[in-house]
Amino acid sequence: MVRRLVVAGVVISSLAGCGTTSAPIPATVVPAPQKAVLGQETQVLDESGKLVLRVSGGTQDALQKIVDITTSTGTKKYRVVHTVNGEVKADAVYQAERSPEGQVRVRPVTVSK
After folding, report:
1. Does 63 have pLDDT greater than 60?
2. Are 23 and 46 in a shared domain?
3. Structurally, how many domains does the chain consist of?
């Protein structure tokens, strides 16, 4: 039997009653698919205002790209501007930092709109 639980847009699946062990099977986290919005775009700019990348998806897609970039560059601040049909829907500054263990954390610094 497969159980699914959606928490904050993330699907958590676990198998129950499978196998012969009595220990619980750990849940796996599967990202929920993002709704496609026609005309949406997210731009990521560095601290100087230079365009780093453009994503034809939402803010979550851009944050994942920031994690990918940060693994090679270190701590940086990025401005993320999300638009739909040219209208700004979200504008925020995020700080991405890499821990000594190699994990990347992206957190909002300022959020407007």
Report:
1. yes
2. no
3. 2
